[in-house]
Amino acid sequence: MSKFTLGEIAKKIKGRVKGDSNVIVTGVAGLEEAKNGDISFVANRRYYNRIASTKATAVIVGEDNGAIPDDKNYLVVENPYLSFLMTVELFYPQNSNFVPGIHSTVVIDPTAEIGERVYIGALVVVGAGSKIGNDVILQARSYVGERVVIDDNTRLMPGVIILDDVVIGKRCLFQSGCVLGSDGFGFVCDNNGIQQKIPQVSGLIIGDDVEIGANCTIDRGTLSPTHIGNGVKCDNLVHLAHNVEIGDNSLVVAQVGISGSTKIGKSVVLAGQAGIGGHLRIGDRVKVGAQAGVTKSVPEGMEISGYPARPHGEALRSQALLSRLPNVIQQIKDLLNRVNKLEEKK
Amino acid sequence: MSKFTLGEIAKKIKGRVKGDSNVIVTGVAGLEEAKNGDISFVANRRYYNRIASTKATAVIVGEDNGAIPDDKNYLVVENPYLSFLMTVELFYPQNSNFVPGIHSTVVIDPTAEIGERVYIGALVVVGAGSKIGNDVILQARSYVGERVVIDDNTRLMPGVIILDDVVIGKRCLFQSGCVLGSDGFGFVCDNNGIQQKIPQVSGLIIGDDVEIGANCTIDRGTLSPTHIGNGVKCDNLVHLAHNVEIGDNSLVVAQVGISGSTKIGKSVVLAGQAGIGGHLRIGDRVKVGAQAGVTKSVPEGMEISGYPARPHGEALRSQALLSRLPNVIQQIKDLLNRVNKLEEKK
Amino acid sequence: MSKFTLGEIAKKIKGRVKGDSNVIVTGVAGLEEAKNGDISFVANRRYYNRIASTKATAVIVGEDNGAIPDDKNYLVVENPYLSFLMTVELFYPQNSNFVPGIHSTVVIDPTAEIGERVYIGALVVVGAGSKIGNDVILQARSYVGERVVIDDNTRLMPGVIILDDVVIGKRCLFQSGCVLGSDGFGFVCDNNGIQQKIPQVSGLIIGDDVEIGANCTIDRGTLSPTHIGNGVKCDNLVHLAHNVEIGDNSLVVAQVGISGSTKIGKSVVLAGQAGIGGHLRIGDRVKVGAQAGVTKSVPEGMEISGYPARPHGEALRSQALLSRLPNVIQQIKDLLNRVNKLEEKK
Predict the structure, then answer these.
(1) Most C-beta atoms within 10 A of its C-beta, which of A346, B44, B219, B311?
(2) CB–CB of B322 and A317 under 8 A?
(3) A196 touches B at CB < 8 Å
(4) CA-nearest residue of chain C to A345?
């Protein structure tokens, strides 16, 4: 495990020390879990009162830090959370422990092109005509099909499967067990009630800085490719059907499913287990609630939830009204009685 | 990439050329994406007006084609869509680029029987007593356990896992990462609150012409086998529990889950993310809506949706009424006021 | 296949023979599927009338067995179901067909420590610094990363992926394709709308007697580890996010998703496709219905269902009232008419 003085950390993350810059920091932790030697952080001044009881050796705080105890060591920064993330990276540098080299058990087709400083782990397969960029990491047991392109600094964790003709950008990260480029689900029922397969012959194009979670599945396109934009992040067990398009910087939370040919805009958030129907357009910056079932296109900027999904405020009102239903039914009974009496008196 | 004259394609898919039968076709594409050299199609006469602007070299159309422009080349057929699929197959013949042969890195038990013209890719494992039919394709890194039977012309894509005692028919296709024959989820809570495992000792039988999507899981049966009928197609990330039975030609869309011992009829469609409870019977030709939660058996031919699932028309009415609730509550308020006044006047 | 006399089985499962203890039993089956030679069981006296028509050679019954036919052979026990499970184990002893040994194709780092009587199948990878206990079974193509600890008698089925720093207890069973220790889904949106990854640097700790289903994904913790208690059982395709904690003996049914930092109590049951929000506390012995969407913490012992999840009785009442809505709306129309008439008469 690495260790740094607080002064060294300050230099690297561009912060200012308040306290002893020679103190030794040996790890990172949340405020409550921190022990002697750790550096922690407080992102919100509301929580400055928790600093007194932490065991952390140093705490990263923001500029407005008047109320913090004097007997601790601090790193003062503009954005404590982002600076803490940079500090975590210092202690756990991603990808750093992959010494470039190719394991003796790999099966690489002689026509594949492999870039410089590439790490290829045990039992990896790379098919004919594929191109692997520089500084790429293919961890053990990952599979790369034929005519695949993987650009610089992208990393496949153990057991990732990239099928033929998939094109992947720079600095992507693929979690274990995800499958990229499986056949889309396309069948035509013939006159005998038999489902005939529609050949799925196009590819899958993935931008830069994409992260795809464990055991996700992304299908290749039917006649034109499926597209995942730059900076898109998918959680685990997400399903993206053939010819889906996702705009830059959108987030897709665990177990979401997106049906065929739907176009998702930029900076969209799809919460866990939501389902999006086929051939829809979801505008930029739309937020879809957890478990929502989206059956229509959604204009940009909207927040929707429920099944079928509707504007979030409306969905909440429906739920609230539903809980008032017993009351409504009682009111009607009362009204009936009173009208009965009024009629009798006639 | 292959190329054909339009006349050659006409012969192979049994169509009639209208235009130049010597023109060279080099690819397939949708009408809008098509470029010079491509063949495309129009399945519905409503869209014949889009032909004028396509860049396709030739277009497949139906018999009722009076309104199409004269300056294009056509293939006239009975069913343009099915004929187009056949044309796609001409350009992208499935399974054709697997030259029979067994990679040097495979681990095949000496008691396994391997048929003729079989392709076995890198790092494939085949266990003791398994039988692999003729013309089977086991792509790289696929795993076949012990006493497995795989019949002729079936294909496992990279990374498929077939566990012990699974029996598979002819012409099936398994997408990457699917797991066939995992243990069912069966436990009995003993007197100490500890869940004791119910041994899952039976198998899994899969018919002919079945396709199973990426990262699906199908459990073996407890004491008698799980059954998947002929022509069943499963999309990605589908879960089929122990002792499920699915009738011929049913479609199971992505992320559907079917609980233990439920019997699904023939030609059923289960839309995405639907969940089917345990020990139910879903009749032939039933259609279950996306995200529906099926808690009761369903007679044949019904269309159901919602949670808990009910006849689709009824579910739609419930949703419509729910949106009228604010109105209903206002009406009751008005009634109350009017009855109050009536009572005062007495 | 093994065979036993009924007397031998009686001895092993501590039951009493009623009938011929020399009869030969060659298999186990349900009452209806049983054929000559099988032993079956009846767990509930209500079903004793089905014994007359079974083809089973022997039947396991409870002590209160007055009404059973005389011409069959029985094993009389306290708990017929648990005794039947023990009998199934006799015929299909789990893990017994793994002769200890290490396949010649494995890739095991020289710094890994391997216990005694371990089975390691074809193409298994074990990384640096990992410790494999005694009697562990690592089936073909399973992957164990660096610094992983796997305690005695645990079994990985083919294709399981255990990533770096995961710690696993005794007697666990991992079904094929599950991924343990993938990165959690943590990002911070910076000022440019770019999602910056929060490094996921902690581990995953799994207790004793845990079973994890096929293609499940369990994420490592961000700064402190994710925790799975003793005796927890997960069905297939379950997603457990970073820093989730699950108490002892809880059951998680297929396709459930649990969001980050949520703490699940002991002996909880989460039914299929349920989704649990982040940072919640679900009390001991809570039961969550299938497809429920849990948005708030739940006190111990409660049964909840629906979306958003509420007490199960209340959810059922809401559904019932919803089905009465058309009636309610008709009643209001009638009332309006009657009040109109009353007002006219004034």
Answers:
(1) B219
(2) no
(3) yes
(4) C342
